[in-house]
Hints:
The protein is α/β, with parallel strands linked by helices. The protein has a single domain, classed as TIM Barrel (Alpha-Beta Barrel). 46% of the residues lie in helices and 12% in strands. It has helices spanning 8-13, 34-43, 46-50, 53-66, 80-84, 106-111, 122-135, 148-157, 165-173, 175-199, 216-233, 256-260, 275-281, 301-315, 335-348, 354-357; strands at 72-73, 89-92, 96-99, 141-146, 203-208, 237-238, 241-242, 245-249, 266-268, 287-292, 321-325. Strand 10, helix 14 and strand 11 form a beta-alpha-beta unit. The longest helix is centred in the middle third of the chain and has 25 residues, at 175-199. The mean pLDDT is 95.
Amino acid sequence: MTPLVNDTFLRALLREPTPYTPVWLMRQAGRYLAEYKQTRAKAGSFLALAKSPALATEVTLQPLDRFKLDAAILFSDILTVPDAMGLGLYFAEGEGPRFERPLRDAGAIAKLCAPDPGKELKYVLDAVSEIRRALGGRVPLIGFSGSPYTLACYMVEGGGSDDFRTIKTMLYSEPALLHRILQVNARAVADYLNAQIEAGAQAVMIFDTWGGNLSHAAFREFSLDYTAQVISQLKREHNGVRIPNIVFTKGGGLWLEAIAAIGCDCIGLDWTTSLGEARKRTDNRVALQGNLDPMTLFASSEAIRSEVARVLADFGQGSGHIFNLGHGISQFTPPDAVATLVDAVHSYSPAYHQDTQTAQ
Length: 360
């Protein structure tokens, strides 16, 4: 495929010298953009949009045409994996994702098996390949999946939840059932991410969105250990090129040392964790991604620039920082605020890389 014009993001993930801090945004392709809404209307439904490689390519590239972002991320959904397992994903108006057949009994859990990405998830792999071609080497493409535990939350609850009562009841009352789900999910996630890498993804990210809802002891047993299984199975190279990976646990600031120890290349941070403290606690063993509060983007341009400067200063000198939000961008975010953010990162960050530029 076409060589990369801008590989700053990949080099930062591997803590190699970069001339500035690269920036991309979680959910950068989405409802805050008018052009996304138009494409979504053309598709007819979210699932139709996600399952069309051509339309997924179109919306993946939309934010790159507006903003000078340093990476693209596949447009898809973390729930494609349990959907491929036959749980019956649908999106209820005003309620978000739901499953027709949530996992509630031992019989259904015993029958659960990892899907074949080349069959049940071929539309995602086709989208990855099409996006890589369409990017033409402008920036790297990130593939992704939900973590085994985060997927299990939706699979057991049947959708989103305020208190995760159903899955936590299973965790404490019948832990063997939850472990069975997580074992299948770990295999499924590893297979899925490796298939994305083979299709053209140049980095992969694991979203452990709900890992932070667990107790200290339960996090390691039911979330981290299974994320570690995925990391251990991931392809680290493809066609002779290193493929970095990112692990993001929302609410995971208590467990940075443990997350770093599983062998990931980068840890994503939410806005509750200091980048500077995280850098010290992980002893520069991993890159760090984050961690601007998404609500900053509703403030004035001056406030956005001030917060960008603060985040950059918090990480400090040197490479290994990928600027991002501490969670996904809000659908109500003004696009002009994103332009201000990206410009500020590119304007302010070279000062933190002056000592490394001579090594380029």
